[in-house]
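Re: the request from the purification team.
They wanted to know what the chain is likely to look like in 3D before they choose a buffer screen. I agreed to run a prediction and write the result into the notebook, where they can find it.
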Amino acid sequence: MKIIFAGTPEFAAVALKSLHDAGHEIVLVLTQPDRPAGRGMQLQASAVKQFALAHNMPVAQPISLRLDGKYPEIAQDAHALLHATPHDVMVVAAYGLILPLSVLTIPPRGCLNIHGSLLPRWRGAAPIHRAIEAGDLETGITIMQMDQGLDTGAMLLIEKCPIAETDTTASLHDKLATLGGTMIVEALQKLEADALPATPQPDDGVTYAAKISKEEAALDFTLPAEVLARKIRAFNPFPAAFAPFGGVTLKIWSAQVVANDGAHPAGTIISADPHHDVIVACGEGALRLTELQKPGGKRLPAADFLRAFPMQGGKFD
């Protein structure tokens, strides 16, 4: 099939590669404009753009597709390009721009979205983070027919994926990206054969995965240890859980729930030695912090971290 693909991060690049490897013709790639990144804040192309250029795919990077938005002339040019590019279907994965109805109605076979949750649970921007944070035991991929709503379109294919107790957003992202790439190829095969029935989403079980803010990654040790452990996994790699200690802000990259006799106030360092990592009291239970990072430093196992940053007898602010 002739495909217009819209996506930006690595999650989308995996799907684009799957479509390319399956022999589909990618006639146009839409992706977000280059963004400053790294210490030098140099403009960097998205993962999707890098793959597209490496495989001689035409790329467009409009900052808006809304004709009634802030940049109507740019949106008009983008619409003209879409109309002028012969294609069968549009595939969308973590694009990052709203697709108005004026775009959704252009592709003859519609717009298919690769969404990283089992809809209608976790509609919205951060379904992988929120599933881990909430303690969900499973998630998955939904291939959805896009409509004007926020991830409200009819479901075309669904596959489940278990969430391991050790999964972070990084590890679960990679699993779901691979699954999504496989499923979109299957979905297009069925679409070509007119064998892709659409099922409306149920009204029950709707939840929203709000965009992640850096502020919510702050750890409050008055909360139960299990809640904090999920937050640490959910915010790894971004924005990274953190907590102030001794006048500096430490990033906490991994932790395990352990027992606590309740004799220590929340936030108190119960133990801090290379043999037992860093154990901190919580509102319920305790956390063993196993990987930490100080400002300007590297991510280190707790044993190595403690050699340069003693914490025994201290308390998180």
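For the purification team: The chain has eight helices and 17 strands.
Please add any questions underneath this entry.
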